[in-house]
């Protein structure tokens, strides 16, 4: 069991740890109207931090406080009760009854938050104000990552009006703030343990572990992500340059192919023209001889046709005088016709 002497100068490292164990105030109580405060919550609040008990302890004089608050008070007081100033000889153990009541209250809050999100908000995944009580809970405007509560416009004004709460980090409404609280101690995850690579609260800090603030780790991780993004952008730029080079190479290759095609077409066209000219020159004498032979044949045909006509006329004359019964006429024209026929036979070699 701890003694009051343990909380003062006997262990400097312990004193430093206790200085960091500052309870997180609950602005819900100060932001909401007094008529909406739950009586149970008022009796389960620490008079030092005005927040719900965290590891509640009850002194011999009957007053209850957060264990961390009483430890810190003992560092700067004369070992007396902060409420009645009665001397305290030791730090009491955690009050398990109060601890159980706080767990039940926390569970009831979770159930009420789920019911309000399903009923009052009207839409799934819509974040509602954690301070509003009852089915008429309003839609949350901002969430506090220190208080781990979401606030509507009215309660946000109450939160921001408290000087000690103005430094809290406010963000757009977060659906599940419980994920940002330590599952073991219920405190905000304000630190990052690099050895275990996880977010922790101030009560999870162990000696010898490398612990930094989540903001510092976020800055470093974001720097790494930015470096990766720059690296990827460089990779994209290099690949785009490669693509441009490939496109240029394709254009040059196509130009060369078109030029070669043009050269081949020109060469083949010239060769075809030369062959056709040579063909014409080679066939020209044959055409001349063919035309001469055709003319000679036509002349011979014409001559033969004329001779056939002449022969037919001679035959007609011979038949005409041969068939006549006029003896005088026959004898008068016979010699002339025979002379004509003989002359034709001699001239045409019959």
From TrEMBL:
| Residue span, RING-type domain | 46-85
Per the database entry, which stretches of residues form a coiled coil? 290-321
- Answer yes or no on keyword Cell membrane: no
Region Disordered: start-end pairs? 1-35
> What taxonomic lineage is listed for the species of origin?
Eukaryota, Metazoa, Chordata, Craniata, Vertebrata
- SMART domains given for it? RING
Q: Which CDD domains match?
A: Bbox2_TRIM16-like (cd19769)
**What's the protein name?**
E3 ubiquitin-protein ligase TRIM21-like
Q: Where is the composition biased (Basic and acidic residues)?
A: 1-13
Q: Which UniProt keywords are present, listed alphabetically?
A: Coiled coil, Metal-binding, Zinc, Zinc-finger
InterPro entries cross-referenced by the UniProt entry = E3_ubiq-ligase_TRIM/RNF (IPR051051), TRIM8/14/16/25/29/45/65_CC (IPR058030), Znf_B-box (IPR000315), Znf_RING (IPR001841), Znf_RING/FYVE/PHD (IPR013083), Znf_RING_CS (IPR017907)
One MF term in the entry's GO annotations: zinc ion binding
């Amino acid at each position: 069991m701890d003694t009051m002497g343990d909380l003062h100068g006997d262990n400097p490292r312990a004193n430093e740890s206790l200085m960091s164990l500052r309870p997180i105030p609950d602005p819900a109580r100060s932001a909401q109207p007094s008529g909406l405060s739950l009586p149970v919550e008022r009796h389960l609040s620490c008079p030092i931090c005005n927040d719900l008990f965290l590891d509640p302890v009850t002194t011999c004089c009957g007053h209850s406080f957060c264990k961390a608050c009483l430890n810190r008070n003992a560092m700067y007081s004369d070992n007396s009760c902060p409420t009645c100033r009665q001397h305290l000889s030791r730090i009491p153990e955690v009050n398990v009854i109060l601890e159980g009541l706080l767990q039940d209250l926390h569970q009831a809050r979770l159930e009420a938050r789920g019911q309000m999100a399903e009923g009052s908000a009207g839409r799934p995944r819509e974040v509602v104000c954690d301070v509003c009580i009852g089915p008429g809970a309003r839609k949350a405007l901002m969430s506090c990552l220190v208080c781990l509560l979401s606030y509507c416009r009215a309660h946000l004004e109450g939160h921001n009006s408290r000087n000690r709460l103005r430094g809290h980090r406010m963000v757009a409404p977060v659906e599940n703030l419980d994920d940002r609280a330590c599952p073991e101690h219920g405190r905000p995850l304000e630190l990052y343990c690099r050895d275990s690579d996880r977010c922790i609260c101030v009560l999870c800090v162990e000696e010898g572990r490398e612990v930094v603030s989540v903001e510092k780790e976020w800055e470093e991780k974001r720097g790494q992500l930015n470096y990766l993004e720059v690296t990827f952008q460089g990779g994209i730029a290099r690949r785009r340059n490669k693509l441009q080079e490939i496109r240029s190479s394709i254009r040059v290759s196509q130009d060369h192919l078109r030029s070669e095609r043009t050269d081949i077409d020109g060469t083949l066209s010239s060769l075809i023209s030369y062959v056709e000219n040579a063909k014409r020159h080679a066939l020209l004498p044959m055409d001349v001889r063919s035309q001469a032979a055709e003319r000679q044949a036509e002349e011979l045909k014409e001559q033969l046709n004329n001779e056939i006509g002449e022969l037919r006329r001679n035959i007609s004359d011979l038949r005409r005088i041969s068939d006549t019964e006029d003896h005088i006429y026959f004898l008068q024209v016979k010699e002339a016709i025979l002379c004509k026929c003989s002359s034709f036979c001699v001239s045409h070699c019959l």
